[in-house]
Specification:
The protein has one domain (about 15-135). The chain is built from five helices and no strands. It is an all-alpha fold. Keywords: Membrane, Transmembrane, Transmembrane helix. InterPro entries: DUF2231_TM, UCP029509. This is DUF2231 domain-containing protein.
């Protein structure tokens, strides 16, 4: 059984792009969980954890966004709509994550509730980006 590549079908994610895409979801989700822990316990260290997790998600997410932008221009016109949606969702995730990092740079309690809401939205966008990224790019049919 050999997997055939058909030029009409979308290409699979490059392995490095797949690795980069794997990081934002758990990092932004961890920031949401630590924001929830801070909301319930008022221990400042949870806010610090959130800030570091957001910074990590932004760092790796920036490379995933850049890779998606390059893929958007590198690929032909075949089924480009999914690539555009993927790029826009990744970009929105990164921009809201950056705003979230700025909110988390404030004093610990001053981050609430905006930081919690932004963490939830950013984690949701990271989930949507991972879903689109991993589900839509296939190599073709197996014969």
């Amino acid at each position: 059984m050999v997997a055939l590549f058909s030029p009409g079908l979308l290409r699979p994610l490059h392995p490095l792009h797949a690795i980069l895409l794997a990081f934002p979801l758990p990092l932004f989700l961890g920031a949401l969980v630590s924001d929830l822990a801070y909301w319930s316990s008022f221990h400042i260290q949870w806010a610090n954890f959130s800030s570091w997790l957001i910074a990590g998600g932004l760092l790796v997410g920036a490379f995933a966004v850049l890779w998606a932008l390059v893929d958007l221009f590198r690929r032909g016109r075949v089924r480009k709509g999914r690539l555009i949606v993927y790029f826009v969702v990744l970009l929105a995730m990164w921009v809201l994550g950056f705003v979230n990092a700025l909110v988390h740079a404030k004093d610990a309690w001053a981050t609430m509730p905006e930081g919690l809401y932004l963490s939830a939205i950013t984690a949701l966008l990271a989930l949507v980006a991972a879903w689109i990224g991993y589900s839509g790019f296939r190599t073709g049919e197996v014969e």
